[in-house]
Amino acid sequence: MLNQKVPIEVFHPDFLESINISVDVLRLDLLHPVISGNKWYKLKHNLLEAKSRDIKTILSFGGAWSNHIHALAAAGKHFDFKTIGVIRGEKPKKPSATLQDVESWGMELVYVSRSDYRRRYEPEYHQILLDQLSLQPNDVWVVPEGGSGELGVKGCEEILASGEIDPIEYDQIWLAAGTGATAAGVIRSVAGQCHVKVVSVLKGAAFMEADIKQYLDDSLSDCSLNDWSLKLDNHCGGYGKTTPELMQFIVDMESQCGLSLDQVYTGKVFLAFKKEIEAGSVTDGSRVLLIHTGGLQGRRGIAS
Ligand SMILES: *Cc1c(COP(=O)(O)O)cnc(C)c1O
User: Fold this and answer.
1) More confident residue, 170 or 32
2) Which of 69, 166, 256, 284 would you call most buried, defined as having the most Cβ atoms within 10 angstroms of its Cβ?
3) Residues 68-103 pLDDT 10s
4) Is 293 in the pocket of ligand 1 (CB under 6 A)?
5) 297 Cβ below 6 A of ligand 1
6) Are residues 89 and 178 in the same domain?
7) Which of 123, 147, 171 is the last residue of a domain?
8) 37 lines ligand 1 (CB under 6 A)
9) What pLDDT is recorded for position 301?
10) Rounded to 5, what percent of the chain is helix, strand, coil?
11) Is residue 94 domain-shared with residue 162, that is, in the same domain?
């Protein structure tokens, strides 16, 4: 498995100039050249579980630019699993760069209609897919879309440890949420030692509070307490949507700090942080950790 130490870097863009707040970035994007970011942590225990059951095929779900499908295909090649990606929507004339990568790594792709894709959490639908593929249930390990689920959360509890981070050294830890599974794992590992700020990249994601809570025990489950909070207004229009401000911010961070951010997740978190700094809502003297969850391969989807 991948066990190297993840680097931490000081973050000092212009908007932190002459402000007494120290900010570090945990660079999960540097974990591995292709098995990038938080998606590795969500896959790790799924792969271990499949291996312990002697299952050699992993099936999961995603869209044409999915970071999860990309990481799964790369991990499958690296660790010798056959992988199957169930992709939302008709087969495109020209596959996305993401899908070209995963096919080159040996992933089998199955395109399904959007209405079928909505059934991705139903065991009955999994059975239909397996029948189509002439596979037996015991031969395939099914990973939920995005790698969420308890095994995914369990892996995300290891994120801070992989940077040898002691949460007590920070006042705030910020990260992006799509399903909230990564956030749940980080909140569990922090265990109230500092405040975790979870930035939703989805619009209207009030449901995410309950989605995160289901993985937390009672001592951490109330997001109105000091342990964690959910920011719902920094989605820039919704999942996969961008604004000129966001795109300019990504360009600025690249030129000021040499730090690459993606437009779906990390750009939105870092921009949300900048806005809180500008609003004066981060206490003077605070120590902040921003988690770079990876996802840079998805930048290739910007032009499409
Ligand atoms: C998938 C993803 C997330 C969101 O993770 P969840 O566990 O679904 O909340 C955040 N950042 C990047 C780069 C991702 O690819």
Assistant:
1) 170
2) 69
3) 999 999 999 999 999 999 999 999 999 999 999 999
4) yes
5) no
6) no
7) 147
8) yes
9) 86
10) 40, 15, 40
11) no
Pocket perturbation via mutation, ligand 1, pick of 67, 156, 159, 198 by most ligand atoms within 8 A of CB: 67
Angle at 223 between CA 220 and CA 228, to 5 degrees: 75
Q: Are strands 140-142 and 57-62 parallel, antiparallel or unpaired?
A: parallel
Give buried/exposed letters for 177-211 (b at 16+ CB in 10 A, else e). Answer: bbbbbbbbbbbbbbeeebbbbbbbbbeebeebbeb
Question: Residues 158, 262: one domain?
Answer: yes
Residues 169 and 289 both lie in one domain = yes
Numbers of helices and strands, H then E, in the chain = 11, 10
Q: At what angle do helices 67-79 and 97-104 cross, to 10 degrees?
A: 10
Cα–Cα distance measured from residue 69 to residue 120, given in angstroms and rounded to the nearest whole number: 14
Ligand 1 site, residue 178, Cβ cutoff 6 A:
yes
Q: How big is the chain, counted in residues?
A: 304
Whether the model clears a pTM of 0.85, i.e. scores above it, the answer is yes
How far, in Å, from the CA of 131 to the mean position of ligand 1? Answer: 31
Order of strands, edge to edge, in the sheet holding 228-231?
8-10, 22-27, 287-292, 172-177, 195-200, 228-231
Distance of alpha carbon 108 from alpha carbon 86, whole angstroms: 9
What are the residues facing 88 on neighbouring strands? Answer: 112
pLDDT exceeds 80 at position 240: yes
How many Å lie between the centroid of ligand 1 and the Cα of residue 294?
8
Range of the domain at 175: 8-34+153-301
pLDDT-derived band at 36, boundaries 50, 70, 90: confident
Number of domains, the chain: 2
Q: What is the pLDDT of residues 118-177, one digit of tens each?
A: 999 999 999 999 999 999 999 999 999 999 999 999 999 999 999 999 999 999 999 999
